[in-house]
Amino acid sequence: MRGFTGYLQNSSQLIQQASAKKLEDIEIDLLCEGIFRHYGFDFRQYARASLARRIQSFMELENINSISDVQNKILHSQQVMERFLLNLSVNVTSMFRDVGMYLAFRKKIVPVLHTYPSIRIWHAGCSTGEEVYSLAILLQEEQLADKATIYATDINEVAIKKAKEGIFPLQVMQTYTTNYLKAGGKKEFSRYYTAKYDHAILAPELRNKIVFAKHNLVTDSSFNEFTVIFCRNVMIYFNETLRSRVHHLLYNSLCRFGTLILGHQETINLTPTRLQYKTLDEQYSIFQKRA
């Protein structure tokens, strides 16, 4: 009898869990639809498990009890929406974070860039700017800065505003210095910033080469033709349909023989444009457009 009672209890718990999961899916669908209709940001095809985790994290930060309450607050407050976007798009980032990629870029891409009369680089999903400024330093050291323009875009206006400032906590500069040297840095890293109180202010010569702008990879179109495109660790949150759409956008935004650089764990395999690229560095996901 006890075994049967336990079976009924377990069955009841499974039913309740399934019901709660179904309700959560409905709430997420409604939240995404509301955001799309009101703000134009389309999260409807983001990977569901990742999106659910980000929403739960936001609820904890904001002390909100349900996804329905998240929707209510977001639709009635631009400030809440901005905080939600920041939480949704935040990535672990630092200057010269993936040192191997920068070494590969110096060795395999820089010589090619010297053959161009001008260079346009798009850094899609720039977050708060650490990797963009790393690229600006690299270009300066490789005598490419004078003919290069970096277009740094992100979905989040708060992140873009912080990136524009080029100000970072002084306490992280030691780590950044170590990364810089491992990534092939050629000078004293301290020459690229000024220490003031407990912050490091990056040199104006770096910021002057960067154009920051808001751009949504999901809904916006191409806005230029680029020599190099960085789109690193952005599409890991997208489902297959959305990734395919963004890959088409990136391909159409590259010039002939242009370079696409994805995140360390990302690849063009199983994408609709995979046959249109030549692999330059498989380990660091560096690809060249064939035509």
From TrEMBL:
<dbReference type="GO" id="GO:0008757">
    <property type="term" value="F:S-adenosylmethionine-dependent methyltransferase activity"/>
</dbReference>
<feature type="domain" description="CheR-type methyltransferase">
    <location>
        <begin position="16"/>
        <end position="291"/>
    </location>
</feature>
<dbReference type="Pfam" id="PF01739">
    <property type="entry name" value="CheR"/>
</dbReference>
<protein>
    <submittedName>
        <fullName>Protein-glutamate O-methyltransferase CheR</fullName>
    </submittedName>
</protein>
<dbReference type="InterPro" id="IPR050903">
    <property type="entry name" value="Bact_Chemotaxis_MeTrfase"/>
</dbReference>
<dbReference type="InterPro" id="IPR022642">
    <property type="entry name" value="CheR_C"/>
</dbReference>
<dbReference type="InterPro" id="IPR022641">
    <property type="entry name" value="CheR_N"/>
</dbReference>
<dbReference type="InterPro" id="IPR029063">
    <property type="entry name" value="SAM-dependent_MTases_sf"/>
</dbReference>
<dbReference type="InterPro" id="IPR000780">
    <property type="entry name" value="CheR_MeTrfase"/>
</dbReference>
<dbReference type="Pfam" id="PF03705">
    <property type="entry name" value="CheR_N"/>
</dbReference>
